[in-house]
Design a protein that fits this description.
The complex is a heterodimer of chains A (178) and B (171). Chain A has 178 residues and is mainly alpha-helical. In chain A, 79% of the residues lie in helices and 0% in strands. In chain A, helix 1 packs across helix 2. Chain A is elongated. In chain B, helix 2 crosses helix 7, helix 4 crosses helix 8 and helix 7 crosses helix 9. Classes of the chains: A mainly alpha (178), B mainly alpha (171).
């Protein structure tokens, strides 16, 4: 049954009243007195509301509460240990940050000897290659500039690790909480 | 909750005792019966795990229902059997749709009517009708604008009545 224009607004109001578990207001009552179709809907919604409202509520079993508390306490104690002694900024850091930071630092540190060895090779063989064409002072300046740029990149990469770790932990948290 | 953020287990227990009934009631109407206990426990464990991300300026209940609702969504998505059951109930609903049989004297009782609602309608209806939450709070929990919540609520009422043709459920 499609509502007529006159019924549209009262029916929306009837649905609002149903959703708020209230009885329809006086204005709607006046319309209901003159409209059989809306009166039927009102009776239907009242009956539906009573049926839904009468659904059993149920209570969580005590064993479920006990089990939940046990697991939560275990998580809380492991979490509070990781935050202990972090200082005033500690509570602002998400749980798991320290672990993620250590993990990323370990990966970055493992790669460091390779990076240093590669750059040492570049300077050594690059220097030999250019030695025949480029004067010694210019060669020293080039090597210095190259080393400075490498140092800059390394500082940038290692300096960004805490931020990357924080971002990764926050992303995990938002995945957990949806 | 601030104490829980500091790792206070006693404060957590108070929090759980305070919201246990409400959360359980919500899950009872929102999820399939065989998953309720798991979802209840998982919701609280996620509260503990994600406690540092909780903004104390927000209402705790909103955050709690948000976590629980997301878990219900995930559970429904993962549970193939549940999805099949949902499809069966929806086809039942479609079969009943054309008979103008909106009246409550259909074979389906209130619980079945609630269970056969599509996820996006059931979640808003449960939060409004049973939890008495406002549209803004529901919007925050389900992650849609308040206007969409309003239209979904009316769609849910009409779907409960078996009158899906009276509304647009595409929102």
């Amino acid at each position: 049954m499609s509502p007529t224009d006159a019924c549209r607004s009262p029916r929306t109001a009837l649905e609002d009243a149903f959703l708020r578990r209230q009885t329809p207001g006086a204005e709607i009552r006046a319309h209901l007195d003159s409209c059989v179709a809306c009166r039927e809907i009102e009776a239907e919604l009242r009956s539906l509301g009573e049926a839904l409202g009468g659904l059993p509520t149920g209570a969580p079993p005590e064993r479920l509460i006990a089990r939940t508390l046990l697991r939560a306490r275990a998580e809380l104690s492991s979490g509070s240990l990781s935050l202990a002694g972090v200082g005033p900024l500690g509570p602002r850091l998400p749980r798991g940050f320290a672990r993620e930071l250590v993990r990323l630092l370990a990966v970055a540190t493992a790669a460091l000897p390779l990076v240093l060895a590669w750059n040492a090779l570049v300077i050594r063989f690059g220097g030999r290659l250019l030695a025949g064409f480029v004067p010694e002072p210019v060669l020293s300046v080039l090597a210095g500039a190259y080393l400075a740029s490498v140092a800059g990149w390394l500082a940038f990469v290692y300096g960004s690790i805490p931020f990357v770790a924080h971002r990764r932990v926050q992303r995990t948290i938002s995945e957990v909480t949806g | 909750m601030i104490l829980v953020q500091r790792g206070d287990a006693t404060a957590f227990e108070h929090l759980l005792q305070r919201y246990r009934q409400r959360l359980f009631g919500f899950l009872l109407r929102r999820a399939s019966p065989q998953r309720i206990e798991d979802l209840f426990q998982e919701t609280w464990l996620r509260v503990v795990r994600a406690r540092q991300s909780f903004d104390p300026a927000r209402r705790f209940s909103t955050w709690l229902f948000q976590i629980a609702n997301n878990l219900c969504r995930d559970s429904a998505r993962r549970n193939v059997l549940e999805a099949k059951e949902q499809a069966r109930l929806q086809s039942d609903a479609a079969a009943h749709g054309g008979d103008g049989g909106a009246a409550l004297d259909t074979k389906l009782d209130a619980r079945q009517r609630l269970a056969r609602l599509p996820e996006r309608l059931r979640e808003v209806l449960v939060l409004r009708f049973f939890e008495d939450l406002g549209e803004r709070e529901i919007a925050e929990i389900v992650g849609v604008p308040p206007g969409t919540v309003k239209s979904r609520l009316h769609a849910a009422v009409r779907a409960l009545r078996g009158m899906p043709e009276e509304y647009d459920v595409t929102h």
